[in-house]
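pls design
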């Protein structure tokens, strides 16, 4: 069944843009054409215009029917995606497209992903024609989607009949009251590849509906009504054909852009979870499971919700039969909405009567600071100490957090040097990377970023107050999971010879994504629109950084090169400020290092202070 949002590292320069008004014609622009995006920049090495996110808008409630796109609307969205990619997209394999289409069409494991569903065969037969409809507007492809829609309408009608018959038969049985809670709360939707036949699942849903009707009565009626309507929508063949085209767009975008995606407006938060949190919005839960009648909260709910609560409705909208993406979006609280509270109908373990709870976004208590993103520790080093900064991701305020830690440690004693531990750091905000680098490389040109038309934007380090800067030795510790904005930090230190980089080859995520409303007005696109290099022009994309002080930390399970359609590497002109290139040597430790909780950190410190030439070997080159 459909996978939800893909796991992907992407850097925080991405902004949720409004519609950018592209003229849709041929999928690829003529050579030298200038994009009309507000991020278009001069090719001169100056600061690029900053990307501004659109003002948050109220999130859409779930649609009651599968999202649908006309053939023309689907073509427009695909043309927009093709036009905005940093590189012209490659050819899409029809077989892979058919399999991905079947997956994205089916939020429940009933329509096209189940082993007995007839749609995969139809998609395989018509995949090439549907691709023609998306890429060129071929009428034969539009007609092929309608043929698939006709077959889908027949299939869902058959499943609906099986559901109704099973529910009617089961209603004549006697149900034990103690089994009602288990029936109501037990997850039933597949979370991985669908193994059970759709016909079997339809009957199972029918039997559970009968048990819940008997055990919960009126409390479950609205939920069971929505469950049936969402699992087995009563659509015309033409409507189902447009649902096929919408799923085809989702499949197509992720096949031409491994970091990209398209989502309808009622599922758009699946594309930008990091930005969602940065905007102040929060979720009603951290983790949930879908049951036959609602959503079971599994981890970390907002009070007064409790783990184990079965959520039947949010803001008057029944939750039964929602897709994962719809459920997660419905469960978002926005403190800027009026009112920000939500009425949540829950059923608690062992009860047969529901309760309605008023849930508000958690308030920030005065003096209660959020947990820091930077974890610091001191490690004995010669006659002083070295400071280890463990940074698991790159938030917008990373510079402020590092400056705060440095100020605190300076007041306690002598700091010989700072090690920035970026192992496992998948990236985050380019603003955070710029601010962190500003503490050691204030104001310097950083990352050239190239668009499809060849225009180049230059990111520049911030210029913090003198008291916040760090002029002493610094180094970065990296591994195969160090990616994107984290690679920017390590790579800039190396490019300016400001600090050594230790560890193993990094992930190689040297591209950036941006968001834009689609041209059809039905959803949001996330697209890879930029590829960046280090300040000295060294490429990052698909190659990563190869430290000059290697420390074995194991091979990564996945790298950017795993994505066959990821953009190619880009070597840029050298954008460095030559006056800022300088080495700051680590003092000799004389063998006095540690102890360390992590032996690899001690190994890094021994290597840094072993000779006076450690900082002179900081040039990072692309891995071969």
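designed seq:
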């Amino acid at each position: 069944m459909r996978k939800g949002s893909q796991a992907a590292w992407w850097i925080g320069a991405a902004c949720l843009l409004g519609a950018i008004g592209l003229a849709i014609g041929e999928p690829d622009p003529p050579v030298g054409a200038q994009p009309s995006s507000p991020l278009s920049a001069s090719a001169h090495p100056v600061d690029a215009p900053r990307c501004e996110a659109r003002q948050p808008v109220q999130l859409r409630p779930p649609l009651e029917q599968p999202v649908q796109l006309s053939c023309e609307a689907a073509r427009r969205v695909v043309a927009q995606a093709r036009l905005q990619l940093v590189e012209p997209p490659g050819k899409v394999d029809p077989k892979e497209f058919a399999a991905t289409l079947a997956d994205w069409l089916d939020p429940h494991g009933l329509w096209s992903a189940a082993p007995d569903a007839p749609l995969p065969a139809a998609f395989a037969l018509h995949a090439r024609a549907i691709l023609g409809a998306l890429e060129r507007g071929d009428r034969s492809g539009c007609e092929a989607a309608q043929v698939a829609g006709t077959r889908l309408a027949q299939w869902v009608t058959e499943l609906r009949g099986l559901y109704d018959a099973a529910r009617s038969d089961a209603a004549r049985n006697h149900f034990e009251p103690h089994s009602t809670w288990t029936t109501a709360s037990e997850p039933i939707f597949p979370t991985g590849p669908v193994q059970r036949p759709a016909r079997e699942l339809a009957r199972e849903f029918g039997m559970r509906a009968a048990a819940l009707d008997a055990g919960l009565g009126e409390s479950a009626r609205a939920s069971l009504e929505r469950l049936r309507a969402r699992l087995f929508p009563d659509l015309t063949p033409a409507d189902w054909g447009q649902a096929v085209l919408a799923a085809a767009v989702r499949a197509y975008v992720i096949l031409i852009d491994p970091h990209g995606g398209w989502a309808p407006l009622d599922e758009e938060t699946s594309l930008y979870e990091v930005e969602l949190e940065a905007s102040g919005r929060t979720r009603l839960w951290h983790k949930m499971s879908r049951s036959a009648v609602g959503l079971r909260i599994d981890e970390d709910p907002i009070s007064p919700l409790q783990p184990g609560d079965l959520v039947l409705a949010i803001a008057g909208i029944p939750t039964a039969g929602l897709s994962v993406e719809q459920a997660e979006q419905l469960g978002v609280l926005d403190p800027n909405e009026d009112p920000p509270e939500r009425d949540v109908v829950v059923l608690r373990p062992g009860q047969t009567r529901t309760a309605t709870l008023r849930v508000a976004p958690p308030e920030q208590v005065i003096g209660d600071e959020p947990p820091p993103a930077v974890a610091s520790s001191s490690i004995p080093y010669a006659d002083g100490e070295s400071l280890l900064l463990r940074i698991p991701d790159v938030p917008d305020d990373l510079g402020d957090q590092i400056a705060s830690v440095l100020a605190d440690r300076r007041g306690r004693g002598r700091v010989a040097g700072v090690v920035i531990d970026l192992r496992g750091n998948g990236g985050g905000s380019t603003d955070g990377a710029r601010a962190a680098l500003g503490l050691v490389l204030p104001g310097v040109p950083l990352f050239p970023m190239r668009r499809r038309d060849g225009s180049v934007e230059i990111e520049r380090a911030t210029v913090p107050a003198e008291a916040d800067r760090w002029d002493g030795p610094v180094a970065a510790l990296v591994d195969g999971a160090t990616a994107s904005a984290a690679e920017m930090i390590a790579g800039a230190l190396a490019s300016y010879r400001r600090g050594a980089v230790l560890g193993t080859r990094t992930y190689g995520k040297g591209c950036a994504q941006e968001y834009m409303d689609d041209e059809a007005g039905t959803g949001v696109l996330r697209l890879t629109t930029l590829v960046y290099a280090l300040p000295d022009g060294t490429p990052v994309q698909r190659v990563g950084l190869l430290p000059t002080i290697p420390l074995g930390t194991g091979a990564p399970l996945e790298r950017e090169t795993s994505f066959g359609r990821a953009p190619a590497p880009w070597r840029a002109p050298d954008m460095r400020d030559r006056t800022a290139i300088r080495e700051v040597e680590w003092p000799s430790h004389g063998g006095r290092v540690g102890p360390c909780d992590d032996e690899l950190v001690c190994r890094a410190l021994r290597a840094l202070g072993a000779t006076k030439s450690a900082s002179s070997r900081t040039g990072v080159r692309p891995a071969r």
